[in-house]
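Late entry, written up from scratch paper. The run itself happened at the end of the previous shift, but nothing got recorded in the book at the time, so transcribing now.
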Amino acid sequence: MTRYSVIVLPAAESDIGAAYEWLAQQDAEAAIRWYNRLLEKILSLGVFPERAPLALEGKSFNREIREIFHGRRQHKYRILFTVSGHEVYVLHVRHGARMILGETFSEG
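Output as recorded:
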């Protein structure tokens, strides 16, 4: 079985930090649980990342961008990533309520 290196890009790190800070203001213990489970989900991309469906954003960037989800209900987040060779690049972590099309999207 092929193992992939998982690399979290600065934009995704910023997304994660902002989400964590917001959640911590609501409930510090829940924010810690959310963060730990998010990291587990991201690291799980090291095995068979192609299992995740393609995200709509990929059409705008002419490359395969995939997504997996983390959380539930009002705290559902989309983890957007791309696979290149034996590396997975986590591009963004976005709240599920955010628009997909028509918003700024960067690959790093």
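Residues 101-108 have pLDDT under 50 and may be disordered.
(Scratch paper discarded after transcription.)
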